[in-house]
Amino acid sequence: MSTETTQSARRPGRPAKAAASKDQRERLLDIALELFARNGVADTTLSAIARKAGMTPAMAHYYFKTREQLFDLLIDERIMPARANIEAIFKEYAADPLRALTLLAERLVATNARLPWFGVLWIREMISDNDIFKQHMRKRFGMERQIAMFDAVRRWQNEGKLNPDIEPSLLFVSLLGLTTLPMAAARRWKGDPLVAHVDAQVIARHVVAMLTHGIGPGGAGEERLA
Fold first, then answer.
1. Taking Cα atoms as reference points, which of 101, 108, 102 lies closest to residue 153?
2. 185 vs 200: CA distance, rounded Å
3. What pTM was computed for the model?
4. Of 101, 116, 137, 221, which is most buried, counting CB atoms within 10 Å of its CB?
């Protein structure tokens, strides 16, 4: 058999091998996010991620040399695109806080529906005694985006467009709790006839009602924000 024939015979197998390698890498990232959200970043080792994937640690190290490298890739490829989609609202609706915060709540619900790990991971790491997650985020991206969000809330308050009693540093945490906790619980409510109807759409509508009207009669919130 000629060299040309041998090369032609081998060529079709290469894309399939590359695709399989990419699939394995993406699967490891998926599992890492699942375990980080469930157990926390500090308590999840690369070996644990490999075991969950049915691999040896050596196989996992083929894709990621260290857990820190894996975590940095997760930030770049999974966490920041989701976060950027949420943060963009503050620029898109800079003059309309009611619209911005309504969309923020709806987008958080949609993100949690699409990426179940997102909100759970943020909440877990916010209250964690270990700062690995926060240190990685600040090292790679600084605090400029977070400061910009706080500044937008303060500007709305100074312009008389937003309740002055709202604490800017707690707003995102509050919305995360209003959306993430019920989204996580709703996955376990399917067999409960009292709350089985609660889905992402119901949760989004509930959060928006809380934002726009509070617990008072309809319209009260809109008058205060006008």
1. 101
2. 11
3. 0.76
4. 101
Q: What pLDDT, in 10s, does the model give residues 3-15? A: 444 444 444 444 4
Choose the final residue of a domain: 14, 43, 65: 65
Domain that holds residue 19: 1-65
- Phi then psi for 40, rounded to 5 degrees? 95, 150
Specify whether 52 is located in the same domain as 141.
Answer: no
Q: Give the whole-angstrom CA distance, residue 4 versus residue 61.
A: 35
Chosen domain end from 22, 42, 65: 65
Asked if residue 36 lies in contact with residue 14, where contact means CB atoms within 8 angstroms, the answer is no
Count of domains observed in the chain: 2
- CATH number, position 129: 1.10.357.10
Cβ contacts of residue 160 below 8 Å, gap of 6+? none
pLDDT at 163 over 70: yes
Residues 89 and 154 in one domain: yes
Please name the residues in contact with 188: beta carbons below 8 A apart, sequence gap of 6 or more.
none
Q: What is the dihedral of CA 107, 36, 25, 70, to 10 degrees?
A: 100
**Burial (Cβ within 10 Å: 0-12, 13-18, ≥19) of residue 206:** middle
What does the block give as tokens for 172? Answer: 């995102």
Cα–Cα distance between 43 and 132 in angstroms, integer? 11
